[in-house]
Design brief:
Number of helices: 31
């Protein structure tokens, strides 16, 4: 014998409770208002659609049937009822507030029931009166709403600022859609896509099931994923969510703070919320307290901290050299080129994928075979939009032929290049003390007078490494507000490490100058900034080149942290002779003139460049004659406040 229609178990919690709500509204309506209005039969039709065409719509029978099978556990709404231990009357209020956000008839019925107040959302007094009428006294009260689990968890919100009975209950429409099984993503948020497994470090992927078990069992409330921009933190969060059986969604910080219903929705929608707060050095990010919000993933850089209990911190490093080579090979399809770039370019998997794809595209456009120059051009575009905010690109390709320096300087520069190329594997097989202090970063100080080739040498190093060169814009980095300069430098160094660019601090003594006793406020702040710079530069994983006119101006503590100090002397006769040849090329007056100039003109390379440019501007034809060079020499010596050497003057007069 089949059971009566009113006693048939519901297929899903939400349609059943929505139908029960409509029957309850009709019952309350019949006790409070005449039942001959046009809404009454429409509500009756909707109730039959939800409960079934043969269902008995008598309130007492339906209520008894619901109590007999309580609690209902089907679907997201049933899970919420079980988690918060809600009674039937409380679940009916929850359904009423949710249906107001999606069902027009329920919306109109609420407006009629609490007339003359035409608010579409149910007031507190309406909910309490309805429950007392349908279930008798002793249930939900206005006084107990503030501390009710539905309000504490962020599912319901008490809105308005009047007396408590006149305030109304509301629910975020998307949360109700989640409880009904209809929402795909929260407004303002974006789903995070999973990256192919080889894009992420293999060692971290191997540990992901253990990490997911710790989070899934509640032993950790979430994870903090640290790493440089573009290293794949979002992809790792998406991978972790997949292992947990969830879907990662990126949540803007203002949405997370201002919409507590999102945290309440995540466990029932199967979402892992992923946040990217901007936290600078010495700052702490405090997440709003959310009751029952489930797991959380927070993506940070190398600075700052997160205040929260049971957060598991993970550092997202780079793939090892073998994994990087496999990634480059899949993109470049050239084993020799892939092996070369994997050794000297310390890039993450997503960055390798982007650079490799762009390099192939550049080669196809030019109709040439893929080469180092295409990779260098593609690397210049990596992270450029962020780096340009605080640094300026130096788009200059300098080979060994263009760099005229003494042999000892050339040898020191070549050693620096080799050190930078082997900075990852250099530590292999060395002793325990060196292993404990290993750092792939390379720091060099170029010392010399203006025009001796320090900046040109920095371009030579970057060219030899196939890496972009960025000159730090000190005006953009320095900020009058305390703490902002540190934030700017931290952001610059993080992005430089992510893109593996060579950073050039020109005239570095303005930032790394000697510290004072710090008696004045400004001096103390300058000392603090210097201390921060010293610690950040020491742990930076990229190549940093600093230039100064005088070694004495740089703080001794920083000099101790330098890997290589290269002195750039004023050019001697041989260097000046090569400089004249190199600058004038095929347009000069000849070797005899170059030897005469190298003998009596003691200008550095930068000044010789100015002389040649001025002479070329004066020359009307192709050849640059002695008279043109003499005009350029006179202008350069006047600019320096010096007299033209007598030998040059007499030679010009003759």
């Amino acid at each position: 014998m089949s059971a009566p229609a009113s006693l048939v178990a519901p297929k899903a919690t939400q349609p059943y409770l929505s139908g029960l709500l409509r029957v309850g509204l009709m019952e309350f309506w019949s006790r409070a208002l005449p039942s001959d209005g046009p809404l009454f039969p429409l509500l009756c039709n909707e109730a039959r659609d939800l409960l079934g065409p043969d269902a008995d719509l008598g309130w007492q029978g339906l209520c008894a049937s619901a109590r007999g099978r309580w609690p209902l556990r089907q679907g997201a709404l049933g899970q919420l009822i079980a988690d918060l231990d809600l009674d039937l009357d409380q679940a009916l209020v929850l359904t009423l507030v949710g249906e107001v956000e999606s069902a027009h008839l329920v919306n109109l019925a609420v407006a009629e029931l609490q007339a003359p107040d035409r608010s579409a959302r149910p007031a507190v007094h309406l909910c309490v009166s309805m429950l007392e009428s349908l279930f008798g006294p002793g249930g939900l009260s206005a006084r107990g709403l503030f501390d009710h689990p539905l309000v504490r968890s962020g599912v319901l919100e008490i809105a308005g600022d009047g007396p408590m009975p006149l305030r109304y209950l509301r629910m975020h429409p998307t949360l109700w859609s989640v409880l009904c099984g209809r929402a795909h993503c929260w407004p303002g948020c974006e789903p995070l896509r999973r990256a192919p497994a080889p894009m992420l470090p293999g060692a971290l992927l191997a540990d992901l099931p253990k990490i997911a078990a710790i989070v899934g069992e509640g032993r950790a409330g979430g994870v903090v994923l640290r790493g440089n921009p573009g290293c794949g933190r979002g992809a790792l969060a998406a991978e972790l969510a997949a292992v947990l059986g969830l879907r990662a969604i990126e949540v803007p910080e203002d949405v997370w703070r201002n919409e507590p219903a999102l945290a309440a929705a995540c466990p029932y929608a199967g979402w892992l919320p992923v946040l990217r707060p901007r936290v600078g050095p010495g700052e702490v990010w405090r997440s709003p307290r959310r009751a029952g919000g489930g797991a959380l993933a927070i993506l940070l850089g190398t600075d700052g901290a997160v205040e929260g209990a049971n957060l598991l911190e993970l550092e997202l490093g780079l793939p090892d050299r073998g994994q990087r080579r496999a990634l480059w090979l899949s993109r470049l399809r050239d084993p020799e080129l892939a092996g070369e770039v994997a050794g000297c370019a310390l890039l993450s998997g997503p960055c390798i994928d982007q650079v490799g794809g762009n390099a192939r595209l550049l080669a196809e456009r030019s109709g040439e075979a893929l080469g180092v120059e295409h990779l260098a051009e593609a690397r210049r575009e990596l992270g450029a939009e962020r780096l340009r905010l605080l640094a300026q690109p130096v788009d200059r390709r300098v080979t060994g032929e263009a760099l005229i320096v003494p042999p000892l300087v050339a040898e020191a520069l070549d050693n620096l290049v080799q050190r930078a190329k082997r900075r990852e594997t250099l530590w292999q097989g060395l002793g325990a003390t060196l292993q404990a202090t290993r750092n792939p970063g390379v720091r060099a100080l170029f010392v010399g007078e203006c025009g001796t080739g320090k900046t040109l040498a920095a371009s030579y190093v970057a060219t030899a490494l196939g890496a972009p060169l960025y000159r730090v814009d000190l005006a953009a980095v320095m900020n009058k507000y305390i703490g902002e300069s540190e934030k700017n430098l931290a952001a610059l160094l993080d992005q430089a490490a992510a893109s593996d660019v060579v950073l050039l601090f020109d005239e570095a003594d303005s930032l790394f100058g000697r510290r004072t006793e710090g008696k004045e406020t400004g001096e103390r702040y300058a000392n603090m900034l210097t201390n921060f710079l010293l610690s950040r530069i020491e742990t930076h994983t990229g190549v940093v080149i600093l230039t100064t006119n005088s070694r004495e101006r740089v703080d001794n503590a920083f000099t101790r942290r330098i890997d290589s100090v290269i002195e750039f002397p004023l050019p001697g006769f041989e260097e000046r002779l090569r400089l004249w040849h190199s600058h004038l090329g095929e347009r000069g007056p000849g070797d005899a003139a170059y030897r005469f100039l190298a003998s009596y003109c003691d200008l550095p390379g930068g000044a010789l460049r100015n002389v040649v440019i001025s002479a070329a501007a004066c020359a009307e034809g192709w050849e640059i004659e002695w008279a043109h060079l003499l005009r350029g020499l006179r202008a350069e010596y006047r600019k320096l406040g010096r007299a033209l050497p007598a030998k040059l003057e007499r030679h010009g007069g003759g």
